[in-house]
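Weekly structure sync, notes
Attendees: PL (lead), two postdocs, one rotation student
Agenda item 3: pending single-chain targets
PL asked that the sequence for the first pending target be pasted directly into the notes so everyone works from the same version. It is reproduced below exactly as submitted, 286 residues in total.
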Amino acid sequence: MDVWSQFLLRSETGLIFALILTFALYFLFRKTSELSRHAAQNTAATLVICGANYAVALMFLDELNVGAQRAYDILAIPKLPADVWEGVPLWLVCLIGIAARDFADYWSHRLMHTRWGWPTHAAHHSDTHVNAFTGYRVHALEVVVMALSYILMLTWLQMPEAIPFVMVFSSLHNKYVHMDLLFDHGPLKYLIASPVFHRWHHADTPEAYGKNLANVVPAYDLLFGTYYNPGPCTAPMGAMSSGIEDKNPLLIYLYPFQEWGRMFRKLRLHRKEPVTPADLSGTPAE
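Predicted structure, written out during the meeting:
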């Protein structure tokens, strides 16, 4: 499983497509904020973070692959029979693959919305102008954590023919749900995530913290008690209340190490202080 290679291969064409979507919002939907100074600054920070992930991939790709393979061998996760999908239409296998991957992603995502998991995920929430580029604002640590959830699809499910379709769909859908659109999918809103649903996940408001954790299938949030969708999101985007920057890529990249250092110091000193929004990261952490 070469997760970093997949990331690198998808990024170039994906970034171009994200740029096209940005212009589409500006010209077709009259979203003038898409080309504002604020949007440009946030997007620039996102691109620097994405570039930093390229550098990390180049430096540590081999070590990460070897480590992941060793961990997988130790766990000895069993696989389904190789012919389990024989005779099943490819489109149905793809749908099952999308749903299975999102189920695994939901729990990885939920883990990263806990007190200790949040610093890994904070970079993604630091964007105060959420748009088609926001999916590329992820810390290298998050790429590794989320990749662990893909083991379910890439190995146990034994559906290699569906993987390219699932990956392409996930990439395109990820850009779509971050766009500033009022689409909520009506009666299908529990089956496939919409921009209205996902933008609440990025809202910097307490009632939305730790909500809407499914990337594709909102029914998982409904089932596990993390669904929140009162209508179009008008709340501010980002995670400024957690203390993470939105436009300084260096500080965004250093945030998890600084935050974990602060938390370890508090443990070492056995300090018992009242819980504050900063302690909870002012985030979607539960």
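Discussion points:
- The radius of gyration is 19 Å.
- Residues 265 and 271 are 9 Å apart (CA to CA).
Action: rotation student to compare against the earlier draft before next sync.
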